Amino acid sequence: MEETKKKVMLSGIQPSGDLHLGNYLGAIKNWGARADEFDCYYFMADMHTITVRQVPADLRRRTLTQLAQYIACGLDPEKNTLFIQSHVPAHAELGWVLNCYTMFGELSRMTQFKDKSAKHADNINGGLFTYPALMAADILLYQPDYVPVGNDQKQHVELTRNVAQRFNNIYGDVFKIPEPYIPKTGARIMSLNDPTSKMSKSIPEGCVFLMEKPEDIQRKFKRAITDSDTEHCVRFDPENKPGVSNLMNIYSAVTGKTMAEIESEFDGKGYGVFKPAVGEAVIECLRPIREETERILKDKAYLESIYKAGDEKAAYVAGKTLRKVYKKVGFVAR
């Protein structure tokens, strides 16, 4: 009975590229600890990735690698429901229903649609426009209390809440209205070659990937943008020294040291000593994750057993919500 009393939390990441240091330090690192407090669902959002053209073999590889990385990063499959979005048909089914309760004007105001349309002008497809309705379905199927989001996803949770309230106003109390969950901890990691932008897989040179070779990680840190000032001291000053401050943020997140401790450790040593030290700390932080991911990926039977068990539990929970919705809108029971 204890399990049912926990509040529900849900999150998904698209396997559209390899997971990176920003994903880990900003989000995934903190997910594992939540399993004791919440009933957690984490999925590979593979259906969302195809709004942009994918190489099929790459998408399959990245989906399974991401699942292995979730486990290697501390998401215990016994305590968290880990599943693949496309394996639970209720996502697509509720996505269509919610399309019919989401207004054209709401979808056209979504900033991510505008951004992606600009980046992929030769492929502005219907899915790119309506995917927030699928995202609302992803969330509402599991009746979560909380959805962990960064600032760039708040708009999607707001739309989900609006659609759920609209549906509830027509048909009664069908969906729980989820709250955005802004994590108290979790470093905001910026790009190594542009400390004014978030670390992103779309700019590989400024991004450190979880599966990257140690020598490549070290090379990126040695080339990382510091600052153009003349003092070359390691001091936390995000406004005037964004590059150094970003590296300090990263060093703090992987070592647990405070900014004052870091300033003291590198007092008088300059960037030539500091940057390789950050690189080495990151390498040691990611080494066990990379090695465990590689081990898990070799055990195909284990990995399959994890996602099949997760798919089954997710489908059971999602199916209950979908049946309720289908009955409300007037579909004949199967």
How large a portion of the residues is in β-strands, by DSSP E? 5-15%
Structural classification: mainly alpha
Unreliable segments of 5+ consecutive residues: none
Order of helices and strands: HEHEHHEHHHHEHEHHHHH
- Identify the CATH homologous superfamily of the largest domain: HUPs
Biggest sheet layout: 3 strands, parallel
Separation, N- and C-terminal Cα atoms:
30 Å
- Helicity range: 55-70%
> What is the level-2 CATH architecture name of the largest domain?
3-Layer(aba) Sandwich
Tally of helical segments = 14
Shape category = globular
Topology summary:
Blueprint: H1 2-5, E1 7-13, H2 21-34, E2 38-44, H3 46-49, H4 56-72, E3 80-84, H5 90-99, H6 104-108, H7 111-119, H8 126-140, E4 146-148, H9 154-171, E5 179-181, H10 214-222, H11 242-255, H12 259-265, H13 271-298, H14 300-329
Parallel strand pairs: 1-2, 2-3, 4-5
Structure description:
The chain folds into two domains: 2-187 and 299-329, Rossmann fold; 204-294, Tyrosyl-Transfer RNA Synthetase (Orthogonal Bundle), CATH 1.10.240.10. It contains 14 helices and five strands. It has helices at 2-5, 21-34, 46-49, 56-72, 90-99, 104-108, 111-119, 126-140, 154-171, 214-222, 242-255, 259-265, 271-298, 300-329, and strands spanning 7-13, 38-44, 80-84, 146-148, 179-181. The strands form two sheets. It has a three-stranded parallel β-sheet. The chain has a two-stranded parallel sheet with strand order 4-5. Helix 2 (21-34) links the parallel strand 1 (7-13) and strand 2 (38-44). The longest helix is centred in the last third of the chain and has 30 residues, at 300-329. The radius of gyration is 21 Å and the shape is globular.
